[in-house]
Amino acid sequence: MGYLKTILGLAVFAAMPLASALQAVPAEPSAHAVQAMLLAAAWAKERVVAVGDHGVVLVSDDHGRSYSQARAVPVSSTLTGVSFADASHGWAVGHWGAILASDDGGESWRVQRLASDQDRPLFAVHFFDSRRGVAVGLWSLVLTTDDGGVTWTERTLSPPPGSSRADLNLMSLFVDGHHRLYATAERGQLLRSDDQGQTWRYLDTGYEGTLWTGAVLPDGGLLVGGQRGTLLRGSADGRSWQRIALDSRSSITAIAVEGGQVLAVGLDGLQVRSGDGGRTFAASRSEEGASLTAALPGGRDGPLLFSRHGVVGLASP
Question: Is 0.85 topped by the overall pTM?
Answer without folding.
Answer: yes
